[in-house]
Design a protein that fits this description.
globular; alpha+beta; 4 helices; 199 residues
């Protein structure tokens, strides 16, 4: 088992590549859409974990699910002004799942644990990888760039108190799993289907 912290950038890149390969073994139809992230991880001259890399960099996020009430946890992103799963920039130290769990807990106050699938269709908690454009943010001195997001499936308790990180989010709430389909996101459509396989 890998340690939580991978201080060596080479180890972290190898870890991300292994996660990508494992993911593509489950979802080979997505390989064309993930070509950019594969190229980024193969480029040994660029740091794929640095948010200063405007060609694109890795982020992590968590889809937190409470099976008892069939709900998922969302945050209202302060900058993008839309409902999303909690997550953020990778800090270049932790395993990707550890980074995702930390981001969830920081933004929502909800303690999470990795979810293991009950089916052979998804036997790892990495449930989605997505590359998407991020608009320029002059307030942060950032130009337009790409986020390559590794999304992990976690279990959480919808009855636990919420403690939003208000400097990052405008709100936190649990929503019915099927309600994700009403949000304007092709990724959420994909996630609802994947959740059905994972449950």
């Amino acid at each position: 088992m890998l340690p939580d912290t991978l201080a060596n950038p080479v180890d972290l890149r190898a870890h991300a590549l292994a996660e990508l390969q494992k993911y593509l073994a489950h979802f080979p139809a997505e390989s064309a859409g993930l070509k950019a992230i594969a190229e980024l991880l193969a480029d040994t001259f660029a740091d794929p974990f640095s948010r200063a890399n405007m060609q694109g960099h890795i982020t992590t996020s968590g889809l937190v699910y409470d099976a008892a009430v069939d709900k998922v946890l969302l945050i209202h992103h302060r900058t993008l002004n839309r409902w999303l799963q909690p997550g953020g920039h990778h800090e270049g130290l932790d395993r990707l799942d550890v980074s995702a769990a930390r981001e969830v807990e920081e933004e929502t106050g909800v303690n999470v644990r990795l979810a293991q699938s009950a089916t052979q269709n998804l036997d790892a908690p990495l449930i989605d990888i997505d590359s998407h454009a991020i608009p320029a943010n002059p307030a942060k001195g950032e130009g337009a760039h790409v986020h390559h997001d590794f999304l992990y499936l976690f279990r959480g308790d919808a009855s636990a108190p919420l403690s939003p990180q208000w400097e990052e989010v405008r709100g936190v709430r649990w929503v019915a799993r099927e309600a994700l389909l009403s949000l304007p996101s092709a990724r959420f459509e994909r996630l609802v289907s994947k959740l059905r396989l994972a449950l």
